[in-house]
Design a protein that fits this description.
The chain has one domain (about 5-410). The protein is about 85% helix and about 0% strand. The protein is built from 16 helices and no strands. It is globular and about 60 Å long. The two termini are about 35 Å apart.
Length: about 400
């Protein structure tokens, strides 16, 4: 198989995997919302925010930096320091989040445990990416969502009065299954270092921190920009029901990012491996056009759906106005996803951190003004404003880092 043919095969596999992931995730959301209502969906979204906080922290040593570090050493060396950091992240992240009332204290143990497992799955997936096992990485994500869907459907069907706790049981079981599967994939597909290639864990940790701190700071800030509204709404007068409505619209937004998120890891790995500026720019521009087109088509489809259809599908009203408020974020987020991964691929992680920070600050300022007055719709306006600020910042950084005028990057 030629390099070009292999690249096309990986592109197709990534898109198919994302499509399956979208189907499974949509089915899970439909089950939750129709069975548990807006309040149940809001509580679940708030708990899942805690898991994301832990994975965001764990990524400083046990995340995407592994792919970049492959140039220096066998990635097997990252396993021990990465897993030690995962445990620290689970305890610290949950403790800090609950202490600041950002996360629900009543689910402390669940968030810490499942966050640790999810972080390990992501870590193992990044190790597989570093070894160019892209299809295994994609399959792992689909496996986790598929198992969750099957267990959740079985539990809801068996219960006379389904509760949020049923979803939590299904989530824990699916994470445990994927956790074991990820270990098996790593042990079977990742090359062990020779004696001369082994590196002391503390030295590996320092290298991971050096390369990962800027990249993961940006990723953590980006996650907080995308998800903080769930916590802000849950604690606002509108309560977890408003958080549930917003979460449905936001999941729709993430569905619009199906193609950008499928293409982004490919942009990252190929940009990191390509030293020729013209070639890496050409590849990223091609993927960016695909990403924007895919998101635009998805957005158009979401906007023509009437409110009555959303209410019929999910079981409660108020979703379409929030989707409309998130429309600018759909396009800006698609752009940012691809460009941020290009910048990470050339080692310019700090720009992702700065622009994500600007986006988070924008969100907090706007959300403070809009959520008390407009609830979930106000949260959508704040999210779109934050996404636009970040996209403009990334465009400026892309132009600067590649020494290329903006018009040449876009046209």
């Amino acid at each position: 198989m030629t390099a070009k043919t292999q690249a096309r095969s990986e592109d197709r596999h990534a898109l198919i995997s994302r499509l399956l992931l979208l189907i499974f995730t949509t089915a899970i959301i439909l089950l939750n919302s129709r069975t548990l209502g807006a309040s149940g969906q809001g509580e679940i979204a708030w708990i899942q925010l805690g898991i994301l906080v832990i994975t965001g922290l764990s990524g400083f040593l046990a995340g995407g930096t592994v792919v970049f570090l492959q140039k220096e050493m066998p990635v097997w060396n990252t396993l021990l320091p990465g897993h030690l950091w995962l445990m620290v992240s689970a305890i610290f992240g949950t403790g800090l989040g609950t202490a600041l009332h950002f996360l629900p204290l009543s689910h402390f143990a669940f968030i810490a445990t499942t966050g640790w497992m999810q972080g390990a799955i992501i870590f193992h997936g990044q190790i597989l990416l570093a070894e160019q096992k892209i299809k295994s990485h994609n399959a792992l994500q689909v496996l986790q969502a598929g198992v969750l869907l099957m267990i959740l459907a079985a539990l809801f069907n068996a219960s006379e009065s389904p509760q949020v706790s049923d979803f939590l049981k299904a989530l824990a079981a699916s994470l445990g299954f994927a956790f074991v599967a990820s270990f098996i994939l790593v042990f079977r597909q990742v090359q062990r270092p020779t004696k001369s290639e082994r590196v002391a864990p503390h030295r590996v940790a320092r290298r991971l921190w050096k390369f990962g701190r800027a990249a993961q700071t940006g990723a953590l800030l980006q996650m907080l920009t995308n998800r903080s509204n769930l916590s802000l709404l849950a604690q606002a007068p509108a309560g977890v029901a408003a958080s549930g409505i917003y979460s449905i619209a936001f999941y729709g937004l993430e569905a619009m990012w199906l193609i950008p998120r499928a293409l982004a890891p490919l942009v990252y790995t190929r940009t990191a491996a390509e030293s020729n500026r013209s070639k890496r720019l050409s590849h990223t521009q091609t993927q960016l056009r695909r990403a924007l087109l895919g998101s635009a088509v998805s957005l158009a489809g979401a906007l023509i759906v009437p409110e009555s259809a959303y209410c019929w599908a999910f079981g409660f009203e108020g979703i379409r106005p929030v989707v409309l408020g998130l429309a600018p974020a759909a396009i800006a987020g698609a752009f940012s996803s691809v460009v941020a991964h290009h910048l990470s691929g050339i080692g310019q992680h700090r720009w992702n951190a700065w622009t994500s920070g600007a986006g988070l600050l924008t969100l907090l300022i706007l959300a403070t003004a809009t959520i008390p007055a407009y609830g979930a719709i106000g949260a959508a306006y704040a999210a779109s404003g934050a996404a636009i600020v970040q996209a403009l910042g990334l465009l400026a950084a892309w132009s600067k880092c590649e020494s290329t005028p903006v018009k040449n990057l876009l046209f």
